[in-house]
Design goal:
16 strands; four-stranded antiparallel β-sheet; DNA primase, PRIM domain; alpha+beta; 2 domains; Alpha-Beta Plaits; six-stranded mixed β-sheet
Length: about 290
């Protein structure tokens, strides 16, 4: 196992197997994954601040087995900040988990070296003693059922945006980095989960041929699922600017409403790591601005 010692800000890190192709069909190596996260950190880190991160790790690349990890990985450096969060109803029977808090660039680089390709976060932040604050974000996950694609998601996103605006709520969008997209807003004062459910069900009633708000896969063919359940405090959604584990190093990328309106092909909203770095240079951070 090859090892390279580097200094990231005031921390010394050992990086391993930098030549390993984590996206083998694209030839994208661990070194390139680390470099992407290093360069995107100025816009990514503010969206991770105070949010316990669930990792999705791919030790042998996207073609190999993966696993979600809530507890801080073993042998974490002592300077990695963690927070203990209660996890009632955990599938593993654990009452709590010690989540990583990604506050700084050294922690982000350390995780990238562990092949934590995907970073997932809740819609709430953690207080100083690990308590969950009230949700500050509202999210709708738009998931197309084939043959529907992200193009149909865009049309639904526009309708959702209009409905939110009627309630005085501004929304912004990002791709999922996979086949769908997400719509976000600042959390309204009312219960976010109940509010999201009511809005999703209303759109499903108004256009039942295009929209569904239930999780049953049999009901989703050719329609867009508005997944309101992502607002459950126990659930997480992929973070903005996170890589995704697809054949290519695609990113969950913030997009403009013009791009949503003009989308005519799924390829219109596929952004790879280099694309996103270039977009940030030109457009800055579109997310939540």
């Amino acid at each position: 196992m090859s090892t390279t010692v580097v200094r990231v800000e005031d921390r010394q890190l050992k990086l391993t197997n930098l030549e390993k192709e984590l996206y083998p069909e694209y030839g994208f190596t661990k070194a390139e994954v680390i470099d992407y996260y290093r360069r995107i950190a100025p816009v990514l880190l503010p969206h991770l601040k105070d949010r316990p991160v669930t990792l999705r790790r791919f030790p042998n690349g996207v073609g190999g087995e993966s696993f979600f990890e809530k507890n801080v990985p073993q042998h974490a450096p002592e300077w990695v900040r963690t927070v203990r969060i209660e996890t009632p109803g955990s599938s593993r029977g654990n009452d709590y988990a010690d989540f990583v808090m990604v506050d700084d660039l050294p922690t982000l680089v350390w995780l990238a070296n562990l092949a934590a390709l995907e970073l997932h976060i809740p819609q709430w932040t953690s207080g100083p003693r690990g308590g969950r604050r009230d949700p500050d974000l509202l999210v709708f996950d738009l998931d197309p059922g084939a043959p529907a694609t992200v193009v149909e998601c865009c049309r639904v996103a526009q309708r959702l945006r209009a409905a939110l605006e009627d309630d005085g709520v501004d929304a912004w969008a990002k791709t999922s980095g996979s086949k769908g997209m997400q719509l976000y807003a600042r959390a309204p004062s009312k219960d976010t989960s109940a509010y999201a459910k009511e809005l999703a069900q209303r759109l499903a009633r108004e256009t039942p041929r295009e929209v569904v708000s239930t999780m049953a896969k049999a009901a989703r063919t050719g329609k867009v699922l508005i997944d309101w359940s992502q607002n459950n405090p126990a659930k997480t959604t992929v973070a903005p600017y996170s890589l995704r584990a697809r054949e290519r190093p695609s990113v969950s990328a913030p997009i403009t409403w013009d791009e949503v309106e003009e989308c005519r092909s799924p390829d219109d909203l596929v952004f790879l790591a280099d694309d996103v770095l270039d977009r940030v240079k030109t457009l800055g951070d579109l997310f939540g601005s």
